[in-house]
Design goal:
The protein is of the alpha/beta class and 480 residues long. Helix content is 47%, strand content 10%. It has 20 helices and 11 strands. The chain has helices spanning 35-39, 41-49, 66-73, 104-112, 141-147, 156-170, 186-199, 203-212, 229-239, 278-302, 308-312, 315-329, 341-352, 361-364, 368-385, 391-410, 419-426, 431-441, 453-467, 471-476; strands at residues 26-31, 56-60, 78-82, 88-92, 95-99, 118-121, 176-179, 218-221, 247-249, 254-258, 273-275. A 5-stranded parallel β-sheet has the order 5-2-1-6-7, with helices on both faces. Strands 4-3-9 form a 3-stranded mixed β-sheet. Strands 8-10-11 form a 3-stranded mixed β-sheet, with helices on one face. A hairpin with a 5-residue loop joins strand 3 (78-82) and strand 4 (88-92). It is globular. It starts with 25 loop residues before the first strand and ends with a helix.
């Protein structure tokens, strides 16, 4: 089958949204051109390029060349498939340079180019080489390699500092580094890491970065299932061209950016949100979306469901999650200018019902001991500080306890950093025993639970109801 390229784009069927026109301008360097970047940030930039051609993206891969080669073979074009109740296809043409690991000289040149105003990253949380406390891990092998003066950096921190050093030496204003991975306070953490790295090489450069370089924090969101052969075949059938770089995501997309002044293209004009309170958006996402996700995972699995959409088709469970958000979570969130919490709640629940996205509950259920203290525990702590008992959150935590007991009885491995402790605690236990053991060990449950007998009793009662599959008692809040 003929490949999607600039020379074949005129064959696209009607109804497929075409890409931005071709151009040579590169104003953005992006490290980590995986599926999320291509489905998310690149779509915003493609929108901008329709009326402002300066902001083409140079895609840089530090580890592998497969994505770079696929993009280069298609002149940077690929299909974005929107998988939703109303599906759509759009061809993206935001990428204009394709830099594999062996293109270090070109990467250095672009980072020094005054036309490049923005350097974005999607390298996963691990890619920033941070220690557990969020500071630069100077013992990380990639950082050790880069600090030794290697000509080709191994870390994104090393690359960004190298680019900033070239700008400082040439008397050119710095570009704006913009991390786009879901890491809390990602801008502040990356800025501190850049300064710490530079401090070990050049104190003057470190001072310049500290004083002159702005690194906005961001929050990004859009469910982006991995591309596979089924996607490639589906897209080829729809556009009648082969596309080995196609990506897919839900229709909903969110890009929240700390407002540090103009940082390259007008991202707000393309639909991004500029705000002085990214943390407020992060907190809303963590507690509403992620808290509801975990609740659906544990209660949904106990009720025999496999996916988020299937769990949301369970009306009793869907009503429970909606009530938890409205009655327990939203009242404990701060007011954030520009954020309509009720509208966000409705959008989250609509996304969960999307039948075109198969989000498996067993995947969401992984690492509960690490996730629940933030997704549900913070809401619980806020209510207890005010003297209230949030019955839906309590029931959700009871569902996690029952989930652990079920896994133990069935001999199914618990996937969690604390798997050994959780498995030992659940072995042969009843709900009350497991709640007490986890509370005493401070695993998964709020640390204040041991000194809060009413809370301990409430979670125990919820765990008993969930373990007994007494759904009326659990979901109606009559488990105490």
């Amino acid at each position: 089958m003929t490949r999607l390229t600039r020379s074949t784009i005129d064959r696209l069927p009607a109804g497929v949204t075409p890409p931005a026109p071709p151009g040579d301008g590169v104003g953005i360097v992006h490290f980590g051109p995986g599926a999320f970047h291509r489905a998310h940030q690149a779509a915003y930039i493609d929108t901008i390029l329709h009326h402002d051609p300066r902001w083409g993206i140079a895609a840089v891969s530090m580890r592998s060349r497969s994505t770079i080669d696929a993009l280069a073979a298609q002149d940077g074009l690929y299909t974005l498939a929107i998988r939703d109740a109303e599906p759509a296809l759009r061809v993206i043409g935001a990428h204009r340079r394709f830099l594999a690991p062996d293109a270090a000289a070109e990467t250095h040149r672009l980072l020094a180019d005054p036309a490049v105003a923005l350097v974005t990253t999607t390298v996963t949380e691990k890619g920033y080489c941070l220690a557990g406390d969020g500071t630069l891990d100077v013992a990380h092998p990639d950082i050790v390699h880069d600090l030794a003066g290697a000509a080709v950096p191994a870390s994104v921190v090393g690359w960004i500092v190298a680019g900033l050093a070239a700008r400082r030496d040439a008397g050119v204003r710095p570009f704006v580094p913009m991390p786009c991975d879901n890491l809390a306070s990602n801008g502040a953490k990356l800025h501190a890491a850049l300064v710490a790295f530079a401090r070990r090489r050049d104190a003057g450069l470190a001072d310049w970065i500290a004083g002159e370089v702005r690194v906005p924090s961001t929050m990004v969101d859009s469910i982006t299932p991995a591309a596979d052969e089924a996607l490639y075949a589906s897209v080829a059938a729809e556009i009648r061209l082969e596309d080995r770089a196609a990506v897919q995501r839900e229709r909903f997309t969110q890009w929240v950016i700390e407002d540090v002044g103009q940082a390259g293209p007008d991202l707000a004009a393309a639909g991004a949100t500029l705000t002085g309170d990214v943390a407020g958006y992060e907190k809303a996402k963590l507690r509403i979306l992620n808290g509801a996700h975990s609740t659906l995972a544990y209660l949904g699995l106990l009720r025999g469901h496999a996916s988020v959409a299937a769990a949301m088709a369970d009306e009793a469970l869907a009503r429970f999650v909606d009530a938890m958000i409205r009655d327990d979570i939203m009242p404990m969130l701060p007011t954030v200018p520009g954020l309509d919490l009720d509208g966000y709640r409705a959008a989250v629940l609509a996304r969960f019902r999307n039948p075109a996205i198969v989000h498996r509950l067993d995947q969401i259920a992984i690492d509960g001991s690490q996730k629940l203290p933030y997704r549900l525990g913070d809401t619980l702590a806020a209510h207890r500080a005010a003297g209230r008992m949030p019955r839906h959150v309590v029931a959700a935590l009871g569902g996690w306890i029952a989930f652990l007991l079920q896994r133990s009885r069935e001999g199914v491995a618990i996937i969690d950093p604390a798997a050994a402790q959780l498995t030992a605690a659940a072995q042969g236990a009843e709900p009350a025993t497991l709640v007490r053991r986890l509370a005493e060990a401070g695993i998964g449950l709020p640390p204040q639970i041991a000194g809060d007998p009413p809370l301990l009793d409430a979670i125990t009662a919820a765990a008993r109801a969930a373990d007994a599959r007494d759904w009326h008692a659990l979901l109606a809040g009559n488990h105490s």
